[in-house]
Amino acid sequence: LLDITLWHGEEEIEPTGPVNVTFSGFDTEGLYPKVYHIDTETQTATDMEAEKEENGDVTVATDHFSMYAMV
Fold this sequence. Notes:
mainly beta; four-stranded antiparallel β-sheet; 46% strand
């Protein structure tokens, strides 16, 4: 699991609109990775419709930070 959190000083903040989150440094050669948003309260996983870039990075669009899993 990847816990994506953005801090401003001591305060955890959320984006005020849509943002792209890029996962890099993973070996994705020959793979088609999926990224899921993990809602720990409802215990559900939502497919974030990830896009794999030519360089192997994986990008998702979101409007909030939270727990994610890349499989």
